[in-house]
Amino acid sequence: MRTKIYLFLFLILCGFNVSAQEQKMTAAEISQFKEDVNVVAKKIKTLSTDFVQYKHLDFLSKDIETSGKMVFKEPALLQWQYKKPYNYSITFKNGKILINDEGKKSAVDIGDSKIFARINKLIVGSVSGNMFDDKEFTISYFKLKGQNLAKFIPKDVTLKKYIKQIELTFDKEEATVVQVKLLESSEDYTRIVLKNKVINAKIDDSVFTN
Amino acid sequence: MQKSTIQFLLINCFLAVFLISCGSVTKNYTSKKLDKTSYTVPYFADSKTDYVYKTNISVYGNELSGIFIAKKINDTTHRIVFTTEFGNKLMDFEISENEFKVNSIVSELDRKILINTLKEDFRLLLKKQYLIQEQFENETSDIYKSADGKRDNYIFISKNDQKLEKIVHSSKTKEKFTLLFNSENNIFAEKIQIIHQNIKLKIELNYFKSE
Prior knowledge:
Chain A is α+β, with helices and mostly antiparallel strands and 210 residues long. Chain A contains 4 helices and 12 strands; from the N terminus they run αβαββββββαββαβββ. A 12-stranded antiparallel sheet of chain A has the order 1-8-9-10-11-12-2-3-4-5-6-7. Chain B is α+β, with helices and mostly antiparallel strands and 211 residues long. Chains A and B meet through strand 2, strand 3 and strand 4 of A and strand 3, strand 4 and strand 5 of B. Chain A: InterPro entries: LolA/LolB/LppX, OM_lipoprot_carrier_LolA-like. Chain A: Keywords: Lipoprotein, Signal. Chain A: It comes from Flavobacterium ginsengiterrae.
């Protein structure tokens, strides 16, 4: 009897899953979607947004939740500022990573590190949404309810060791990124939800320091 | 000739005894009658709790920070993961009294000496039960000695509130590394420090509540 109930529940859940499932885009939809995103991304000179980060590890009972603010300024100034539950900021600036860990400041030179340069480009790209580079990634495109989804699988072997797949979810109307999901394996991932996005407000260079 | 050899041996013996007593870890403690034969550590014992700590590691002047996660996955084993603040996994271990498995480690940290050091540190940090052979005391703590292979662990329990405050891992003559605990309720440690005496390595863990 109990098995039957479980089976029933399982089938219901499966049913929900199917209805919420992503649908592959057609070739025409893909080119329209890419164009929409590129038009918006090109207009982005500055961007600031609140974010909530959920670290999911398969064996934990709860995701680890941290949150803060992200600021980006063209062409490559980027800062992630964690405010809760601890103060920690990481700034990418002129080939350097500047860190402020609860007031303790440090800097790392990444000028020569190709992997860091690539990760930096990837983060900037994923926030602005402009990373449809077929040379770097195998990309697939899906439709969701009110949203679009692009999945990027790195072609580079080194990068692949760190990130198995990146998933960007876009708001269909605004064509901007609302969620970034970095998958390390099928069980473990980091999901970053972006909200209260402000585009092209004036941001001073002096913000980008530790 | 023979006389001087005996003298030489005697002096050596004295020297040896002197050095041992000088180097002995327990030299500042007073021996005491055993009041228990085993001690169970309260921290990291609950299989329902995700133990999540902001971590700072200082190693030979270099600073590293990230998030330390420990979870008891069955009766004998803990899973330990260390990630960056961004969430990238740097190390992923499974550890018990007798088993140790590296699930993954980034190539930059994949060094035998580092892995073995962390293995020793974490094994002691997560060890649940100690069998006690000797007992000492100083002004503030009851000190229990527990054999650990060729080495010993000294467990410091505060006389004031019976909290586990410190574990010293030591050879017969020298302290190797020390675990320091700060705990409000003696069930959960909010702050933990792992300090090495023979290498310049210090690991500090500060518990944080996820939002």
